[in-house]
Design a protein that fits this description.
Largest sheet: none
Distance between the termini: 10 Å
Oligomer: single chain
Radius of gyration: 17 Å
Low-confidence stretches: none
Number of helices: 6
Shape: flat
Strand content: under 5%
Order of helices and strands: HHHHHH
Length: 171
């Protein structure tokens, strides 16, 4: 089931982000305490993961799925941020992530657009997928704007959110 696979994915993503965080040098001095900020996101990912696991154990799968989704966003943001601070060319990294996310968006957008509708339940599923892809488009646009405004960390968060929302189209 979806809740099981997302919980597994969120656990792996959190472990990867945590490992990357532990080996990456992230600046933490006035005026930008980046490491403190990234630590908050990593802690939030851990909290959402624990909540997801607890809800899963109670067989409340929709809530578990939602908590896993948010843990994934935060874990991906931490991983992207670690890659960013380890990169020799930070702007190129962000642009590359935007480009990858656009490609993923284009692929999933076609799936959502061309999904066949066979009855009311199918209509609701296709409608939900199209709503998710539209939300991803909005976050992707915001990521691009943040990137062009040289607000790279905000862009990285928006990319992480857009990417997870794109992945959720197939739910």
């Amino acid at each position: 089931p979806l809740a099981t696979s997302l919980l597994t994915e969120a656990t792996e993503s959190y472990q990867n982000a945590s490992n990357l965080f532990n080996i990456t040098t992230i600046p933490n001095r006035y005026p930008n305490y980046y490491k403190n900020q990234v630590t908050d996101f990593l802690n939030n990912a851990a909290d959402r993961l624990l909540e997801s696991s607890n809800w899963y154990d109670k067989e409340v799968y929709y809530t578990s799925t939602s908590k896993s989704f948010h843990s994934l966003i935060n874990s991906h943001f931490v991983s992207y941020t670690c890659q960013y601070f380890a990169s020799q060319n930070q702007s190129n990294l962000v642009q590359s992530l935007i480009n990858q996310t656009i490609q993923s968006y284009n692929n999933k957008s076609e799936l959502a657009k061309n999904a066949p509708i066979h009855g009311m339940v199918s209509l609701q599923c296709v409608g939900a997928a199209q709503q998710r892809i539209n939300e991803a488009a909005s976050y992707l646009s915001e990521a691009n704007t943040s990137f062009h405004n040289s607000d790279h960390l905000t862009a990285l968060y928006k990319i992480a959110y857009a990417q997870e929302r794109i992945e959720s189209v197939q739910w």
